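worker-03 picked up job from queue 'complexes'. Input manifest follows; four sequence lines, order preserved.
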Amino acid sequence: MSDGQPAERPLTRIQQKNRQTILEAALEVFSQHGFRGATLDQIAEVAGLSKPNLLYYFPSKEAMHVELLSTLMDTWLAPLRALDPEGDPVEEVMDYVRRKLELSRGFPRESRLFANEILQGAPRMVAALEGELKDLVDEKAAILRGWADAGRIADVPPHHLIFSIWALTQHYADFDVQVRAVLGPDHDPYAEAQGFLDTLFRKLLAP
Amino acid sequence: MSDGQPAERPLTRIQQKNRQTILEAALEVFSQHGFRGATLDQIAEVAGLSKPNLLYYFPSKEAMHVELLSTLMDTWLAPLRALDPEGDPVEEVMDYVRRKLELSRGFPRESRLFANEILQGAPRMVAALEGELKDLVDEKAAILRGWADAGRIADVPPHHLIFSIWALTQHYADFDVQVRAVLGPDHDPYAEAQGFLDTLFRKLLAP
DNA sequence: TCGTTTTCTGACCATATGGTCAGGATTACG
DNA sequence: CGTAATCCTGACCATATGGTCAGAAAACGA
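worker-03 finished. Artifact:
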C-alpha cells in the first residue's frame, strides 16, 4: 500500500499521535453508526479535537474511512495467511478458527466496521474483495481441497468451509447485542463459543 | 401488535396500496443504506411518490423503519417457532436450517435490514430481543437440551447451536457481495450452501 | 351533480452536516 | 532568541435533509 507521489516527508511526532487519535475515534464512531450515520462532529468529540483539526489531518471523512478499511484488511486476513500447507490439516484449520475468534473478541469494532461495509454492498471495497481476498481464499481453498482429496480431512467444499468459519466467528462480534440479549447475563459468549466451535469443526472435518 | 386508541377506521383501498408501496421502497433503501444512510427523497423516488406524500401516510421516517422491523420479526422467527418437540430431532433441526436458508435466499433485504439494526446496537429492538426473542429461544433450547439428554442428538450447547444456524444461514444474505466476489461467477451460493449446511449440521448433531 | 372527505403537492423552513479559510498559537530549529 | 514551519481554531458557507402547511385535485357518497 505504498502510494507514489514525490517526497513523502516523514510524519512528525504530533502528526503521528493525532492521526492515531483520530483513527481510533473514527473507528469507534464508524463501527457504531456506519459511514453515513457517523458525523465529523461525533468523531471530533470522541477524539477530543476540533472538527477543522480533523480535516487538517485528513482531507475528508471518506479518507478516514478508507484508511481504516485498508489497514483493517491486513489484520483481518493475517490468520488465513497463516494457514500452513505443511502443518497438520485439522490442527491448521482449528488454529485458524481460534485466531479468528480471538480477533472477534479482541477487535469487535473492526469486525463491525467491516460488516457494515459489506452489508452496504462494499462500495469502497469490491475491488479488494475480488482481488486480494479472492486470490488468498482461492489459494488456501486449494490447500484444503488437497487435504480432502488425500483423505486427511472430510470432503467438504473448501470455500464454504472458509465462509462458515467467517460466519461463525464474526457472528459473536457483529451480533453481540443479540447474543447477549438471548444468553442473558452470567454468560461469557466467547468462552462458550470457543468450546462449541471446537466441537463443531472437529466433527465436520473428521475424515 | 394491536395498538389501542379509539376507532381505528379501516384503511381505504388507496391507503392499503400506498402504504404497501412505501414500505416496499423503504425496505429497499433502508436495507441498502441503513437507517441513517437512507433519505426520504430516495424512498420517495423508489416508491414513485412525492416526499410530502410519504409523510401523509407515515408520521416520520422512523415510523416506517419501526413498522418494517416489527413486521419482519414475525417472519423471521416463524421457522424457529415451527420446531416441533414431537418430531424427529435431527430432522426438525435440519428443517429449521433449510427454512432459515430459504428466508435468506428469498428475503435478503429483510435479512440485511435486521443485520443493520443489530450491528448498530439495535437501538429500536433491544426490548424485543430481550423479551420475545429470548423467550422463544429459551423455550426451543430446552427442547434441544431434552433431546441431547436423551441421546437423540449430540450434546451441544443449544443456544450456540441456534446461533450457529443464524450465523451460517444469514451470512449468505448479509455478506452476499463478499460471497459472490470470492466464489466468482458461475456459482449458485445458495444451492451450494444447502448441501454444505446439510452435511455440517448432520455431522454436528449425530449422537 | 354537488358537497364532503380523502389524497396529494409546491413552496417553504429549521437544522445538521461536510467542508473552507484567514489568521492566531505553538513548536522546531539554526 | 528569532523566525519559519507546523498546528489549531472561530467563523462561515453551501448543501442536504426531515418535516410542515396551505391549498389544489381526486375520489367518494348521496
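worker-03 released lock.
The first helix of chain A runs from residue 13 to 37.
The radius of gyration of chain A is 20 Å.
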